[in-house]
Amino acid sequence: MIKLTKLIVLLLLLFSGINVAQSIEVLADTDSSEYYVGDYIKYKIAISHDQDITIDMPSVKDSISNLDFIKEFPPKISEGINNKKISVYDFVFSKYDSSEITIPQFNINFTQAGDPEIRTIRTNPVTILVKTLEVDSDKDIQDVKKPMRISLDWWVILLIVLLILAVLTGSYFGYKYYKSKKEGTSFTAPKIVIPPHKIAIKELSELEGEKLWQRGEVKEYHSRITYIVRKYFENRFNFFALEQTSAEILGVMKNISETGIIHDSTKQFLENADMVKFAKFQPMPTVNEEMMKQAYDIVNKTKQKEELFEKKGTSDV
Fold first, then answer.
1. What value does the CA radius of gyration of the chain take, rounded to a whole number of Å?
2. Per-residue pLDDT tens over the stretch 246-303
3. pLDDT tens, 167-178?
4. Spatial CA neighbour of 108 closest among 58, 73, 60
5. Which of 64, 67, 153, 256 has the fewest C-beta atoms under 10 angstroms from its C-beta?
6. Nearest to 299 by CA among 251, 242, 230
7. What H or E segment, with its residue span, contains residue 70?
8. pTM
9. Residue 292: which H helix or E strand, with range?
10. Which residues pair with 89 in a beta bridge?
């Protein structure tokens, strides 16, 4: 009887620990993987946790001894998916000699309402490379940059071409309308129906070509890519995805049989975007690349068959 009681208590403690582990997650990251000596190294810790959890953040500058501490910012708290809180802590460090450095793991204590026990979660290690500037002592001293020749931007040329095409198209249909009205007949411009997946693939390809995150415009990149996917959901499955939160979109998708195969990848896709847009998190380049792969995968796995769409489009005209 005593052994049975001990077993029950042990199982209760085990399941309690599992539930707490699922209610809090931590991710540490830097804004780049490579720096030059003396650069500012922006180190960020993002903690996603339940509303009833209280974080006891340790002294990070004392926990990281292999970097030189510069500055600490006040924590930022925001709302995440599934009524979670996202707590973000930003720090600035530097390094004045070149080497490969691993920012170590360290413990973060937390407590949960109704449970006096202090629990611990560990950050992940982050490895960076600090380099020195290469100097060729045999070359003469030169300007920082050579004089640039200003040329006409390609987008200006494209805009002019599009305006000319718009004027010509408007003139053509205007003439046809005037002529048909004069002859007493009606004229209806043909309705061009483009499948939603073709629109989404075209917009993703254009976004990929702009190389926004490679130029440091990470938040704009994540906003644009999520807008394209949300608009695709709206046109493909006929619900107001552009006006809904990530959690509401996932809730609607549970009732659509065709979206079952992309539910998990869509959840991860939207959570990553929310971390960047609302918690101002700076993801590693691999995360930005994965976002584009997931977007293509979401569209390709749920696109409508061409013959079915053509029948639907013909009936709409």
1. 28
2. 889 988 988 988 888 888 888 888 888 888 877 677 788 888 888 899 889 999 998 8
3. 988 888 888 777
4. 58
5. 153
6. 230
7. strand 68-72
8. 0.41
9. helix 285-302
10. 45
